[in-house]
Amino acid sequence: xxxxxxxxxxxxxxxxxxxxxxxxxxxxxxxxxxxxxxxxxxxxxxxxxxxxxxxxxxxxxxxxxxxxxxxxxxxxxxxxxxxxxxxxxxxxxxxxxxxxxxxxxxxxxxxxxxxxxxxxxxxxxxxxxxxxxxxxxxxxxxxxxxxxxxxxxxxxxxxxxxxxxxxxxxxxxxxxxxxxxxxxxxxxxxxxxxxxxxxxxxxxxxxxxxxxxxxxxxxxxxxxxxxxxxxxxxxxxxxxxxxxxxxxxxxxxxxxxxxxxxxxxxxxxxxxxxxxxxxxxxxxxxxxxxxxxxxxxxxxxxxxxxxxxxxxxxxxxxxxxxxxxxxxxxxxxxxxxxxxxxxxxxxxxxxxxxxxxxxxxxxxxxxxxxxxxxxxxxxxxxxxxxxxxxxxxxxxxxxxxxxxxxxxxxxxxxxxxxxxxxxxxxxxxxxxxxxxxxxxxxxxxxxxxxxxxxxxxxxxxxxxxxxxxxxxxxxxxxxxxxxxxxxxxxxxxxxxxxxxxxxxxxxxxxxxxxxxxxxxxxxxxxxxxxxxxxxxxxxxxxxxxxxxxxxxxxxxxxxxxxxxxxxxxxxxxxxxxxxxxxxxxxxxxxxxxxxxxxxxxxxxxxxxxxxxxxxxxxxxxxxxxxxxxxxxxxxxx
Length: 637
Hints:
637 residues, alpha+beta, ten-stranded mixed sheet, six-stranded antiparallel sheet, globular
């Protein structure tokens, strides 16, 4: 039981807390009941549910938890409202994602606990997935819900994180929840290998992809399906709740049933790749799909590809930065990237190519697709061998640092000259030190004011255009189609912004969470009014007194004005130094074709392989130099 993932049941609820769909797996539930019978204390002393509750009981228990914990996610930490036995009593943020429900049975009217329920929220739906765990794990969690101390103490005998690390079924349940969420919201997409040549992209990429005929992902060719249809799939190992329920379209319901029957029969996840499952259902199997006797067909390639052979690669990096422009706080820049691949190759070939840029000075974290033979990390140039699956897939993920410096440097300043007017200044340098073929496709700077309504602004930037919305000012420095390549750009933007008069509002819920904190009066305010140098501090203090406490999901909005966010896209290469040598891509068995090479970041190998690279911004934050900002102390080497 410990070495695999099995799912007891799953539920899909709406934001009105009604169960739209549920699926129970009797085979797995039988194992749970047998484990409980072997451990009688599990039922008598720890009030563990011996069987699965009904859909109505799940909905009622979920509503009770939302009332008790404040929201579907919950507090995640112990606060004044936390009740002994609840998730927040455990005082661990992971309880916002792995929750418990308490239900009352009709026989004994006792509160029975159902845990661990993996909670995934997607769109208007809440997906609950219940994996199979040992009764001892559930008893440990029950004891943590009633202990007097809080937090995970170092060296403690029982803490939640080590407990979950020993449960691989939790990881599997998260994967199931995420895939179910993607299916019901229609977000089942493959990793982007080729960017469509649409007018929204523009520039060099459109001309290149259009010239070689790449516009979208290739879709499987429909073929007669062998066997029964999705609606008639066998369900002997699973039992669904098929009562008429509103809110989920029949097409979505059939897609979920079909996916569950194929991906996790009898409650055991086998292949959660929606592309593989769909392709098998559409194409079926034929005698030509049987591999040679001397080759073993991997699980990630359930049928063989036939058609024109080619390989496509993309390197997609996301830059996260916190720019402070302060001597006492260093700027922070991190890069997360992935190498996406699509290999349309006949048979079961192996592909090998050298990865450049794996030295530890730039790339520090690596993870590979299970089809790859992982090289030892540490050398500058290493060969990666993999047996590619069908469709688009992420071959490798990594995190590292930029070897070229930040693509956007400079500072942002905002100071309040009165209670409802602020003066700001941007001074930025774009693409300094960057050379062709790297080019910036677009760049936009946004000043958000989530708790102030913008009435007007005054100012003219040195480059670009400015637009104003109710709660933000947007500065488009570079627009799509007018990219910058081979040169740096200096951009300045001084101006003022006027807000609507401030209307103090106090949040009772925030005060309840943080405790009853009384405002203290002192003579500091009287003294500062006589000192003109402290006028700005006085105005800031006056406004921040009545600011709403921000939710945990809004980490950058804990003040009325604190930061500006930069969005951009860079084409033509990577910032970490990660790259693929196009002349060294080898396919075994070998493909007899000439090798051609292009220098425009679009490579043609044997008329079969293409490589595109792009960099986009993640949370690229310019903190207000004159305001407050969060910062984490870096450990000393």
